[in-house]
Amino acid sequence: MKAVIFDLDGVLCSTDEFHYKAWKMLSDEKGIVFNRKINERLRGIGRLESYKIILDENSSVESDDEMQEAINHKNELYRNFLSVMDFSFVSDEVRNTLIKLKEKGIKIAVGSSSKNAPYIMKKTYLDKYFEVVVDGSMLSKSKPDPEVFLKAANLLNVDVVDTIVVEDAVSGVQAALAGGMVALAYHQPELDMVNERLYKIENISDVLKFI
Question: What residues are labeled active site?
Fold first, then answer.
């Protein structure tokens, strides 16, 4: 293997609770239902697609302008939560794993559906480890489409068959496999997919076993 592409949220650092709180605040303001079960459906999905899922769960319909206004507001709420992030939001295990990968000559990238990925990486000092970051602003399709990982592999100048993807969402695992890469499903004990290129891991440091 020549490269590892990491998802950001829930893998390198955890902002899942911030997403949940922001969607919950927005939904409460609008008087629609949002809960942990619905939130699970949003993992790895882009902002607009996520809001469409919430509306669908509520049998609600909004115009394009109304949806854009809503997701912009959600992002403002989310960024307010992100403002508290710092170096401590990334574990020593993650940082040590990234350092060891670089020492082994492995190229590393971030492939995230989030348009806030660069901001999060700067706040947590993760940006210094990565030569390539593909975020939501560079994408036309959300996971499970493999666009994000294919673009990262292309920018790293590596073949997909020599690339590992580390993901904590089913949609991300599906995207990696669709792109022809090896997928490491992080903290997904209930994942029931079977594929010769799919492995489950419980620790980020387990990535090193596949190099």
Answer: 7, 9
Pick the CATH number of 3-13+86-210 from 3.40.50.1000, 1.10.1040.10, 3.30.450.40, 3.40.630.30: 3.40.50.1000
- The rounded distance, in Å, linking the Cα atoms of 105 and 100 is 9
pLDDT digits (tens, 9 = 90+) for 127-175: 999 989 999 999 999 899 999 999 999 999 999 999 999 999 899 999 9
Task: Give the Cα separation of 136 and 147 in Å (integer).
Answer: 10
Are 142 and 134 in contact by the 8 Å Cβ rule? The answer is no
Report helix, strand or coil for 106.
coil
pTM above 0.85, yes or no: yes
Measured CA to CA, the distance from residue 145 to residue 19 in angstroms comes to 21
